[in-house]
Amino acid sequence: MVSQQKKVGNFDPDQLCDINRGRFSRPALPGTVSIGGVVGHAARGINVARLRATCEGCSLAELCLPRGLDQTELEQLEEIVRPSRPIHAGDYLYDVGDPFQSLYAVRSGSIEAYIYALSGEEEVLGFYMPGDLLGLDGLLNGSHTCSALALETSSVCRLPFNTLGVLCQKLPGLQQEMYRLVGKELSKEQAVLLAIRRGNAAGRLAQFLLNMSKRLAERGLAACEIHLSMSRKHIANYLGLTEATVCRVFARFNETGLLRVERRHCQILDMPALETVAGEKDPEAPQHRLSLS
After folding, report:
1. 127: which strand partners?
2. What is the rounded (10 degree) CA torsion for 143, 145, 151, 156?
3. Which of 60, 142, 161, 242 is deepest in the core (most CB within 10 A)?
């Protein structure tokens, strides 16, 4: 069971995560630099050049910048894209039952989404990295069906959904691109779930690490150097395994030379062998087939 987090009330969307369910978060430092751009600046009043800089490497970049929006259209989009101050480990971006108001694109850090099962235990739904879009769970009924929690100091861009709808009516093609982006995120999540929730323990963990590696590569980062912001317990919950099993498989991967693991830093040493364990390649190296379950 993943350790339960304190449940607290709503936040003001115009002061995104300044108030963490009743307590003030630490203020942003001016000019703070992180993956995805500059954080800690007020959303209102930023110019188009800064918008272009802060959206690079973010899922919102696919929504606007490559599609040939002109200066006037970019200025309109600038009015609704709202970079947030940093949120810190343990802070909620939103909680289950909160009214759905915005979609969020992660700019830096990492965020975990989870729900509570009928048994009362937490069930981890996914881990979101810079460039990922979240908040889609609120589209159906107008309220969030899961909670989103920062695993480390993180920042997001908020896209108010109602305002986006109005803007879609003004900007030709923007609504179609929004649908494409949402569909892409849903397809990606389904593919990940199918890949990692089948096979034995070694195969599931290998698939998880390969997915993290591919996501890093897509962002122009070193694919073999993975920082695991989530605990072993959370990884185990996500993969449908026990914490002891995940720790045992990590140790075996380390012993057999697939990985070098030091606490939460994981270096992939033998990518082909890891792909074999994950079932993505023919078993050319039988010595790397692990039978842990």
Report:
1. 112
2. -30
3. 60
- Residue 46 has φ and ψ, to the nearest 5°, of -75, 150
Contact between 37 and 53 under an 8 Å Cβ cutoff? The reply is yes
Q: Considering only CA atoms, which of 78, 77, 86 is closest in space to residue 33?
A: 86
Q: Which has the higher per-residue pLDDT, 241 or 77?
A: 241
For 167: left if phi > 0, alpha if psi spans -120 to 50, otherwise beta; the answer is: alpha
Residue by residue, DSSP assigns 45-95 as T--HHHHHHHHTTSHHHHHSGGGT--HHHHHHHHTT-EEPPPB-TT-EEE-
Provide the token pair at 120: 């009362």
Tally of CB atoms within 10 A around 142: 10
pLDDT at 238 over 70: yes
Residues 16/43, Cβ–Cβ less than 8 Å: no
- In order of start, what are the domains of the chain with their CATH numbers? 13-173 (2.60.120.10), 197-288 (1.10.10.10)
Strand order, beta sheet including 133-134: 82-83, 155-160, 102-108, 133-134
Split at pLDDT 50, 70, 90, the class of 283 is low
Nearest to 221 by CA among 9, 15, 34, 25: 34
Q: Alpha-carbon Rg of the chain, whole angstroms?
A: 20
